[in-house]
Design goal:
flat; alpha+beta; 3 helices; 4 strands; about 100 residues
Length: about 100
């Protein structure tokens, strides 16, 4: 079974409030066994017109686990804390 990834491009609009989201999302990641591959850090543009602000890449054992994380009560709490603090663009991608 292939791994799955959640890739998020985040534009933080309220850094103070976003810290509360990070606290709850970290708890959700831990509860669902997410492997954090990327969380912030330097983004170096190399091609095209995509200029992401903040990237997050989480690895899960499979699509079902990634979907369960996204639909979980733990992540719902994080999502509520993020309202007004960031613009989130997030996808689930099946690995190989």
């Amino acid at each position: 079974m292939a791994s799955a990834y959640i890739l998020a491009n985040v534009t933080v609009t309220n850094p103070v409030q976003y810290e509360e989201y990070k606290k709850w999302s970290s708890a959700a990641m831990q509860a669902h066994g997410a492997e954090i591959c990327v969380r912030g850090g330097l983004v170096e543009h190399i091609e095209g017109d995509w200029f992401p602000d903040r990237l997050v890449l989480l690895k899960f054992p499979n699509l079902e686990a990634a979907r369960a994380f996204n639909a979980s009560p733990e992540y719902s709490k994080a999502r509520a804390a993020r309202q007004g603090a960031a613009i989130m663009r997030m996808v689930i991608v099946e690995g190989v």
